[in-house]
Design goal:
It is found in: Cell membrane; Cell projection, Axon; Cell projection, Dendrite. Helices cover 12% and strands 47% of the residues. It is mainly beta. It has five domains: 7-109, Immunoglobulin-like (Sandwich), CATH 2.60.40.10; 116-221, Sandwich (Immunoglobulin-like), CATH 2.60.40.10; 227-304, Sandwich (Immunoglobulin-like); 309-389, Immunoglobulins (Immunoglobulin-like); 392-477, Sandwich (Immunoglobulin-like).
């Protein structure tokens, strides 16, 4: 490299400076020397080497003591380069009749330390110019320059918004520079989370370079511009019994710590932290809720609907009725939105609501009216009705001769609730072949059966008794040797329905025949009437003769 036409050696601070003597060694060389020039131009010799004796001598110069080395080709090396080594050095080769000189310029470079942002502000306030911090880069040579950046973009000075002041201080003992750049800044709300950094630009042996500081984020304070109210938890529906938390927040930094909450029915705001808790809410909590800053400058509102569900079953609990009685049942629903209602009887879902115009034993059971509110999770109600249908014992007895012709079966069909107890008695000779056997008690009905071989006519008595009444019915049974009409064992509901259907069919046929006979009679009467009218003149004379005959007969009877 050449500086002003002179050969230049660039050295790094602390490294070894190597300066070759750029002269050709002449014939008859006696010795070589190195010197440097003072600012006033006076020379200072620092090294000597004889070409004949090969010995090297270094002058007593304090700045270069134990730092110099002169090689056989007259290359001068200086250890531990310093800023003060930036001089004009000259290589001299001397013969008997000539002295040759070649100057070399030494340049020393020192990379600064990584810049740091010190004396940082604790926080920044909008609309206020304040000291953000100082960017410091130490021990640079030559001096560098400092540039501030925000989010990777250069911060340019701007009056009353961006003020930058750069100071460069040199250490007299080392000659190194320390650069300090202070930044005064007026932030905006958008500067929250902005990254501030600084970059130092310096020169090295190979040219211009840069080093960047670590980015710094400042807490930017700004006033609240908007208040927001929220309902927690953020579920879509609220039902009676829930706990509700109202949360009020402001978009300032730092956020407000206290607010005024306005509850429906309250004229004054309730001062609280940023939350207001309501437990076990009822339907009367439905309404508009508001919150504001404590100075009432800003406000927000929200509407809360507390869903409810009421169910009234009439009657409910345990109800006892008599068979054949009517029992009106109603399940009334009151709710905040459409509700679904269904009935369950003895753990089986019913297709329709129960209605009892004439209670039967099969109507007894455990009824549940249950309702749920659509789209409101967990909101359902139910009430129960335990229906007991009571009835006095009713008895019907039947008999049948068994296929072996040796015995007869007598059955006592019993209805009633509570279940009647059955006893049998026999009047006359004969023995009960087996003990009474009972069928399963279903829907208030069961039967008791005995088998008997009567030697003569007997009377069997069936006694059924429960808490309501004692009922007695007797049946005459002929001796086993005497044939008699056997009654069927049992007529279940299906058979009864078939008999009813047959009776209805017979009645229908009879009515149809009567109607047909009536129509035929009317037709015949009309026909006869028409025939009499057509022969009226013929019958007139005949009528007179007949009348005369009747008069004579009457007179004869009177005389007699």
């Amino acid at each position: 490299p050449l500086a002003l036409g002179l050969y230049t050696v660039n050295a790094v601070y602390g490294d070894t400076i190597t300066m070759p003597c750029r002269l050709e060694v002449p014939d008859g060389l006696m010795f070589g020397k190195w010197k440097y020039e003072m600012p006033n131009g006076s020379p200072v010799f620092i090294a000597f080497r004889s070409s004949t004796k090969k010995n090297v001598q270094y002058d007593d110069v304090p700045d270069y003591k134990d730092r110099l080395s002169l090689s056989e080709n007259y290359t001068l090396s200086i250890k531990n380069a310093r800023i003060s080594d930036e001089k004009r050095f000259v290589c001299m080769l001397v013969t008997e009749d000539d002295v040759s000189e070649e100057p070399t310029i030494v340049k020393v470079f020192k990379q600064p330390s990584q810049p740091e942002i010190l004396h940082q502000a604790d926080f920044l306030e909008t609309e206020k110019l304040q000291m953000l911090g100082e960017c410091i880069a130490r021990e640079s040579y030559p001096e560098g320059n400092v540039t501030w950046y925000k989010n990777g973009r250069v911060l340019q000075p701007m009056e009353e918004a961006v003020v930058i002041n750069l100071q460069k201080i040199v250490d007299k003992s080392t000659g190194l520079f320390t650069m300090t750049s202070s930044l005064q800044y007026m932030p905006t709300k958008e500067d929250a989370n902005a990254k501030f950094s600084c970059i130092v630009t310096y020169y090295g042996p190979s040219g211009q370079k840069t080093i960047q500081s670590e980015p710094v984020i400042f807490d930017v304070h700004y006033p609240t511009e908007k208040v927001t109210i929220q309902v927690l938890p953020q579920s879509t529906t609220i039902k009676e019994g829930d706990n509700i938390t109202l949360k009020c927040s402001g978009n300032g930094n730092p956020p407000p710590q206290e607010f005024l909450f306005y509850i429906p029915g309250e004229t004054e705001g309730i001062r609280s932290s940023d939350t207001y808790v309501m437990t076990d809410v009822r339907r009367n909590a439905t309404g508009e809720y508001k919150c504001s800053l404590t100075d009432k400058s800003m406000m927000d509102s929200t509407t809360i609907t507390v869903h409810y569900l009421d169910l009234q079953l009439t009657p409910s609990g345990e109800v006892t009725k008599q068979i054949g009685e009517a029992l009106p049942v109603s399940c009334t629903i009151s709710s905040s939105r459409n509700a679904t209602v269904f009935w369950i009887k003895d753990n089986i879902r019913m297709q329709t609501s129960p209605s009892f115009s004439s209670l039967q034993y099969q109507d007894a059971g455990n009824y549940i009216c249950e309702t749920t509110l659509q789209e409101v999770e967990g909101l359902k109600k139910r009430q129960t009705l335990k229906l007991i249908v009571e009835g006095k014992p009713q008895i019907k007895m039947t008999k049948k001769t068994n296929t072996n012709k040796m015995s007869k079966t007598v059955i006592c069909h019993v209805e009633g609730f509570p279940k009647p107890a059955v006893q049998w008695t026999v009047t006359g000779s004969g023995s009960i072949i087996n003990k009474a056997k009972e069928t399963k008690y279903v829907n208030g009905k069961f039967s008791s059966k005995i088998v008997i071989s009567p030697e003569e006519n007997v009377t069997l008595t069936c006694i059924a008794e429960n808490e309501l009444e004692r009922t007695v019915t007797s049946l005459n049974v002929s001796a086993i040797s005497i044939p008699e009409y056997d009654e069927p064992e049992d007529r279940n509901d299906d058979n009864s329905e078939k008999v009813n259907d047959q009776a209805k069919l017979i009645v229908g046929i009879v009515v149809g025949l009567l109607l047909a006979a009536l129509v035929a009679g009317v037709v015949y009467w009309l026909y006869v009437k028409k025939s009499k009218t057509a022969s009226k003149h013929v019958d007139k004379d005949l009528g007179n003769i007949e009348e005369n005959k009747k008069l004579e007969e009457n007179n004869h009877k009177s005389e007699t």
